[in-house]
Amino acid sequence: MTDREAHAIIMRIKRELGDRLVILGHHYQKDTVIEFADFVGDSLELARAASQVEKAEYIVFCGVFFMAETAAILAPGKSVFIPDSKAGCPLADMAPVDRVEKAWDIITGVDPSVVPVTYVNSSAALKAFCGARGGAVCTSANAGKVVAWALAKGKKVLFMPDMNLGRNTARAMGIDDGVVVLWDHEKHDGGLEGKDLARARIVLWKGWCPVHCPEFTVKDIERVRRIHPGIRVMVHPETDPATVKAAGEAGSTSQMLSSIEALPDGGRLAVGTEANMVLRAARKHAGRLEIIPLKEVYCDDMARITLPKLAVTLMKVGKGEGRVELPEGLAGDARKALEAMLRI
Ligand code: 13P
Ligand code: SF4
Asked: How many CB atoms lie within 10 A of CB 81?
């Protein structure tokens, strides 16, 4: 199927289904897909949107699998679809729950007062693990608030699976690096001794996003500042802490877009995140602002969503084929962790 044919099919089915269908699109989707989204947002905004869908029977999620799964958890009465269920997230895959359970036993053996927090980029099983233990989910837009809530509840936080988001959040909160330790799940006992765990306030899980880390580096920032002297630089908090420090500013996708909107005419900003979003913002503000990608990096998983796949998915929604199914018995606890986040 060509993009042109897919376009016509999508237009027709959207017309036929009307209010019965909602298409959600993450900022990292390409323009051709975003054109059809009823709502575009970051992972927090899309989770909220999914939880608030009233009329629609069908939610089609243009993003990666954990996002569609989150929508299915938060909208239990709806049928949720994703145009390619293989659109995964390597970061989410870095925290298999059986390994987390082993780590949990060791960490809580040192101090039972631990609150688990998982970044939304994680499996439903990990969200359920957190929900069952009084923990919560966070996104890059609210990680600081959620970690503060967790530290008010317990003595320590186990933060999974993104070590960079965890470290950047701790630093932004003014938490001393000396009480932030890294649990390396490839190593015996996480590569930590009892005394390391005893002093820790935050235990970071060793996971990272290969699109943001190690892709965006201090050298990239030096280069962009050489070419564009005086330019402001902002990066996603999934980039490593040295890069965040060199940039001086970090924010979730929606926070970056708000900063761009707020720039005065003639403003210049180099943005370190997935290039679809940055280039779209650059086009939107062309002539008024100079928005440049810190580096042109794309997420291959986000790119799996194409117009022909969206068209094929829409042809199936009425038949209920290909719905996102939640792992048995986990939805309740996963919902607890997500709802805790939405309340914080
Ligand atoms: P946001 O939470 O900023 O939407 O980011 C999600 C993501 O996957 C970033 O890589
Ligand atoms: Fe996952 Fe990174 Fe892609 Fe975001 S950009 S979906 S964290 S691989």
From this structure: 26
Helix (H) or strand (E) holding 118: strand 114-119
Model confidence band, residue 193 (pLDDT cutoffs 50, 70, 90) = very high
**Burial of 41 from C-beta contacts in 10 A (0-12 / 13-18 / 19+):** buried
Confirm if 268 and 233 have CB atoms less than 8 A apart: no
For ligand 1, atom 6: residue with the closest CA: 43
CB 335 within 8 A of CB 129: no
**Taking the model in full, what pTM does it have?**
0.95
Q: Determine the atom of ligand 1 nearest the C-alpha atom of 27.
A: 4
**Spatial contact of 46 and 37, defined as CB atoms under 8 Å apart:** no
CB of 43 sitting under 6 A from ligand 1 = yes
Q: Report the CATH number at residue 72.
A: 3.40.50.10800
Question: Is the model's pLDDT at 70 over the cut of 90?
Answer: yes
Q: Which residues fall within 8 angstroms of residue 112, CB to CB, at 6 or more apart?
A: none
Counting ligands in written order, the one closest to the CA of 65 is 2
Q: Cα(84)–Cα(164) distance, rounded to whole angstroms? A: 28
Segment 283-310, tens digit of pLDDT: 999 999 999 999 999 999 999 999 999 9
Q: How many angstroms separate the CA atoms of 93 and 300, rounded?
A: 15
Collapsing DSSP to helix, strand or coil, 291 comes out as strand
Domain extent, residue 60, equals 3-87+302-325
Q: Is residue 340 part of a domain?
A: no
